[in-house]
Amino acid sequence: MALRIVLALFTLVLAITMLGLLIVRMRPILRAMASARQVVRWDQPLYRIRSTAAQVFGHKRLLRQRLSGILHLFIFSGFVVLLLDIIETIGQLVYPEFSIGPVLGFLVDCFVLLVLAGVVLALYQRKVLHPKRFEGSDEKDGELILGMITLIVVGIAIHNSFFRLLEHPVFGMTTSADGHFLSYLLDPLWVRLGWGTPIAASIGYSVGYALDIGTILWFLAYLPTSKHLHVFFGAPAVFFRKLGTPGRFLPTPTEVHSSGDSGISATRDMTVQPIQSFADMTWRDVLDLFTCTECGRCQDVCPAHQAGQPLSPKMLILDLRDALVQQTRGVESSVVRSLSLAGDVISAETLWSCTTCGACQEACPVFIEHVPKIVGLRAALVERGEVEERPQEVLEHWGEERNAYGKMPETRPAWRNRVTYHFKDLRRESAEWLWFVGDVASFDNDLGVARSVDAIATLLGGAGLDVGLLYDWEGSSGNDVLRMGEYGLFEQLATENMRAMERAQFERVLTSDPHSFNALRNDYPQLGFKKPIYHYSQVLQQLMTEGKVAPTHSLGIRATFHDPCYLGRWNQVFEAPRDILRRCGVDIVEMPRSFANSFCCGAGGGRMWMNEAGMKERPSEARIREALELPGVTHFVVSCPKDMVMYSAAVTALGCQDRLSVVDVGELVLESTGWQLARTSAS
Hints:
This protein is mostly helical. The chain has four domains: 2-11 and 53-225, no CATH class; 267-383, Fumarate Reductase Iron-sulfur Protein, Chain B, domain 2; 406-543, Rossmann fold (3-Layer(aba) Sandwich), CATH 3.40.50; 545-673, 3-Layer(aba) Sandwich (Rossmann fold), CATH 3.40.50. The chain is 53% helix and 5% strand. It has 28 helices and nine strands. It has helices at residues 2-34, 45-56, 66-94, 101-129, 139-163, 175-179, 181-192, 198-222, 230-239, 283-291, 297-301, 303-306, 313-328, 334-337, 348-352, 359-363, 370-383, 389-401, 439-443, 447-462, 479-483, 487-503, 514-523, 536-545, 575-583, 619-628, 641-654, 665-673; strands at residues 424-425, 433-436, 467-469, 508-511, 533-535, 557-561, 586-588, 635-638, 661-664. The strands form two sheets. It has a five-stranded parallel beta sheet. β8, α27 and β9 form a beta-alpha-beta unit. α1 (2-34) packs parallel to α8, α1 packs across α10 and α20 packs across α28.
């Protein structure tokens, strides 16, 4: 009885102390979230609950990296079950006869061993394998947490085993102890060591209890200062993630919070804004900063980081978090307060390294949204006029000529002179389809781009598709402009394109460029554009299904297909190009990084027009090396004009033109039909 009172008092005092510390340390973090810009993430609540359960309890994303996922699943599932033992242990302080029973007691011991196995695997990963993705992470913090976890489960095993040796069981019950098979293994050891007496057993039980309950309470108080805040914030971060097509950057009307008190308007131009300070972040942005687990999965897949550039998505989040922590704890100096997030906390060089490929977000197990933060910080640089000469020049071209190449708008349809098919002029007549050709396909001098555009034109014309063009009414879609942070210029380009499309008569849009596809499909609808959008691979797939484009012979080649970031990862279009290639008799060999895990060519987010100095190796060249490792592959297949430019240059730079041909999906389809390329004699 006396021991029970002592343990109860110990638990009460320690709980009040540690929970008090937890509250004190959590208040600044929660206050920072509450004072941030508001965004609504309550839509589709039932789906959010189901998907959160799949991610949190099923470890859906975590298990993509097998070892890390398994060890985390061992530890996580173990603690879910071990809550039963903790409930029993504390419950007996209040009601001595409380017990979870022998069956659950047996289960608890099984998971004690499972958690210990997870800890051993985690240490093996950290100390023996030591993945590069851990570089920059606080590994001492991780090891301290593993130590706490070990103390907790060892404490559970110790106090349960000594329970059976007490002369008068401390709570008057032996039912639970009968189920703990570890007790039967440990009891002989305690007796052999001379710790089997009632007094020694009471001390042993108390030590185990203190290790178990005491470490748990210490763990809770420590969490707000640790990277393991995801214990609290991981599930909310998954629940409140952005739903819908990943490629959408502009928020939907349901996400916009209008509040007179906060001064935030529901008008579109106030829903995205430059991130000059933490006051410009949304509460979801702040949540991301404190949810990061420092696992480095984002860093591991980042093309900029692998190319030797200064960007690490992980360190970007951690640097922002550390700066915010200084402010929330009220210890920042006047120097810290005067720092700009873009330029001081995060360097301009780091921000402009990003290709906005989204690989970081796809890899993150807690769904941190890196790209919107990078774009918001870029926008702050743009707003202050801190843009390097080359990207500034391209932005000016977009603003003046409505294309990245600085060409006069009336020259946009000049590529038509290469092909014999007539495409309707939507400035004067109607058509079923609008072909939104895009900047690169219209203006770039790359021969591969010309081949792919001409092949697509031949297929569309040969199939008898009712297609029209906007001619000089078409301007850049603005996809790169928006992701470079020039919000105003994007709105200008989008508005002009939408006005042109409103004046034209057509039913649906096809694009030859995944970047234009993304902007038209995801960003324009937030501004009021409602037409259905298709990538040309989806259109060709349908034409082949209808028999309007029919392969006459099998190509009999072995090829690998590169998933463009803005077609695959951002818009989930994976099957259409592959289905087309299979119908043409192409044996597809997948690269290790494919589908949603595809590796970026390095051109996105405006990077195509930026300085490449300082790279260890261009992402496009690293990708070609990956393809060269595939047995028997002779063709590298793309479905994006930017990919054609980047990979054609990479093949030339690596001197492997005789081993690997960069071709477009449309070129292979055309070859399989036996149709002749519909080019004019002049071209």
